[in-house]
Amino acid sequence: MFIQSLVATTVIVRHGETEWNSEDRSQGQLDTPRLSRRGQEQARHLARDGISLWQRQVHTLALSSLQRARHTADIVREECAASASWRVWSTELLWEAGVPWAGLYKPEAAQRFPEAYRQFKYEPAASASIQELHRRVQQFWQRRQEQCAADDTANGTGAVWLVVAHNQTNRALLTQAAGWDLRQHRVWKQSNCGCSVVDAKRRIHLVNYVVPHRAACMPATEADKRLLELECDERLPQLQHARNAHGIEVIRGRPADLQRALGELLDGADTQQLVWYPGGRTRLERSGDGSSWTIAGHNWPAADAAPTVIAQCVSQCVEADRMLRA
């Protein structure tokens, strides 16, 4: 699906951890129990350290009506005093992908539904579950555009939409915002309470930022993934390759050079919609079989800039919105 404009800045968040997440158990569209204790802490950190600085700019909180997303949104609203003025839209359009193995542990799901599970994991364009999800997400964007057209305050300069949904749902939101097709659906890693920021021109400023800030400045990764980092440095005339103190390969360069490098890693995907901030880092994970790369985080900052990174991205998006309307 091609979306010409998103009208307003959109901040996309995955719900906090549930017990089933920690057990590697598929939830799908089952209205599983609320957040675990850790998931509740994740939501509080997100609100206090990630949303509070720009809470007054939120016009609409759009959320999946499944319990785990509602619980996350409730905690965010409790922590943000300005949420009393937020418009709230709870919708089934943001539900997680429906799968026949909901409730099963993932190894069992792969055994009982081998072909459907394989397509879901490795060939999303052929997966009926992913196809249906993208149709719903397309309807969400369309409904949002209609609501903004009917309410000037919803698309006014500086208005921000906060979306709380699910792993696959957020992947679909980002894929459609980037103008990519279903083949790239699984490119985006979505950690519990990971935060992504998209501006009105569909440009992606931040992917999967998790608060509080970690020492490694990136989401935790699985041991069997090959790691690669792209770091933006506008001073470099050409790409430079090195290894950091953790032994991770790092490619440094200017935004245009990094865009080309990332596009090649992602099988020719058009990466022009990703915005690169000076000093920002993009971490990629390669699957154990070497078949694909995943964007684990984009525009993650140096440690001293970490506490305000979401607010900075929102500010940049709002400024871009003003320039677009000028």
Automatic annotation (TrEMBL):
Substrate binds at residues 14-21, 68. It comes from Cyanidium caldarium. Signal peptide: none annotated. Pfam families: His_Phos_1. This is Phosphoglycerate mutase. It comes from the Eukaryota. GO terms for molecular function: phosphatase activity. Gene3D superfamilies: Phosphoglycerate mutase-like. Residues 19-38 are annotated as: Disordered. SMART domains: PGAM (SM00855).
